[in-house]
Amino acid sequence: MTAHTVRIAQRSRGRGLGRRVAAGFLYPLGLPFLLLVIWGVASTSSTNRFFPGPLTIFEAFRETWIGPAFVDDVLPSLYRLALGIAASIVIGIAAGTLIGLFQWLRELLEPLLEFFRAIPPPVLIPVVMLLLGITDTMKVVVIVSGAVWPILLNTIDGVRATDSVMSETADSFQITWWERLRFLVLPAASPRIMTGVRQGLSVALILMVISEMFASSAGLGYRIAYFQRNYLIAEMWSGILLLGLVGVLLAATFGVVERRVLRWYHGIREVNRA
Amino acid sequence: MHVLSLRRPRSLRKVMLGVVGLTGFLVVWQLVPTLGLINSQYLPYVTDVFARLAEEFRDLAFWRRLGYTMTSWAIGLAVATAAAVVLGTIVGLVPFLRRATHTVVEFLRPIPSVALIPLAVLLFGIQMQAALLIIIYASFWQVFVQVIYGVADVDAVARDTARSFGLTRRERLSYLVLPTALPYLMTGVRLAAAVALILAITAEMVIGNPGLGRMIELSRSAGDAVGLYAFVVVTGLLGLVVNLVFRFIERRSLSWHQSVRGEEVL
């Protein structure tokens, strides 16, 4: 190989790298940037006061949420959200495993579960309010009462669909009940459980917002509704932005957890595909 | 024949157990206020709730409210599906667009649509458009994402074959892309139908445009527990009907597809 070809190879690799870096930035950031610019230009040239420019919104975001409001409104909301999600996951998986393991229990409860799943979750807010009054517990219960169903039903399906060869193998090795649960049933159901958890997360976020819009004097949902009623437009938009960020963070966190929990599963699928 | 005779006792048992479960639930519901575990002001007797339901079903005003809810549901779902199919097909077929829109989609999709309620109220007040904005936003993403996956899922060999046979763009769309993407699309539409119903009722509860959701909110603020529970049961039944109808449509429209055909053979 002559020095010339090496140089050409290096140069083209360098250019490839440069292009890859450019693509790495341009593709993810190009369109958002473009949209923000268009929004900014449109909002300065139009007189519609319901759509302030992005810079005004960012400014409002900094003033509204960074400071005491973060501790007073945002953290309690997120705390209730986390508590509700955790309770939904624990209840959903525990009850789902139990129901999934016993066929008679499943057949007994199936019509009921179908019905409860079909109830639009926000409708439960007034019911829970009536039963528990307007308290923090009520808001957590509201979140659980909506988010638990997808987790529960997916767990039931996952437990039920345990590979029969594996469960017969487990039988013939006479492993204990607990070992069976820990090493066979739950891992086999985990892809379905994670699907359920993902659906549950978005329901939980919706219920957190609405329960606060409905019955609260603090919290993220309350703040946004308050800004709207007082025509604090930029502040309202900053609240929508914050909720969007919470949603994105929740989805990203879930993605990381899912990859860890289901690493073996994705591995198997890739091997099967190859 | 043999299979049927084996199956019948099982499905009979299933139906029986299901009925027992349902009855048990209703009995427990009736007993809890009767025994005074929860005051009947907060958890009314199930018999009262059912009497109220029967009364509402005879009332024309009830059906009109149901009509409002289902109208905004249907319009919202139709607009969202149409927009998602067109945009999803375009974005899914062009790799450049798929990569360029990825971040925007991943940021916009997780925004809870209820966060847009204040904006919808500002823009449209308590009209149906306010509810539509939220319904469309939420159900659009369900369909859009599925369509993108579906369109991108076209088998490479089939695509190359279609190319070498010289199929036109239009033919490729209708014989190659559509059949591949249809199962995904139907899944998306089924999910979107459920989401659209949730948001149609939520919007009525929070915004106050007429419909079933508003009746729930009015019963709550009037302290009418019986009415509140009756309307909650109605929304549950409505959700059930929507689920069943769309599952049926999905099976019918995909009767040729492996996933449905495979089940029927068994």
UniProtKB/TrEMBL annotation, chain A:
This is Nitrate ABC transporter permease. SUPFAM superfamilies: MetI-like. Keywords: Cell membrane, Membrane, Transmembrane, Transmembrane helix, Transport. Coiled coil: none annotated. The keyword Repeat does not apply. GO terms for biological process: transmembrane transport. The gene is ssuC_2. It comes from Micromonospora sediminimaris. The chain crosses the membrane at residues 21-42, 78-102, 114-134, 140-156, 201-224, 236-257. It is found in: Cell membrane. Residues 74-258 form the ABC transmembrane type-1 domain. Its main location: membrane. It is a multi-pass membrane protein. GO terms for cellular component: plasma membrane. PROSITE patterns: ABC_TM1. InterPro entries: MetI-like, MetI-like_sf. Belongs to the binding-protein-dependent transport system permease family. It comes from the Bacteria.
TrEMBL record, chain B:
GO terms for biological process: transmembrane transport. GO terms for cellular component: plasma membrane. It is found in: Cell membrane. SUPFAM superfamilies: MetI-like (SSF161098). Its main location: membrane. Residues 62-250 form the ABC transmembrane type-1 domain. Belongs to the binding-protein-dependent transport system permease family. This is Nitrate ABC transporter permease. CDD domains: TM_PBP2. It comes from Micromonospora sediminimaris. The chain crosses the membrane at residues 12-32, 73-95, 107-126, 132-152, 173-206, 226-246.
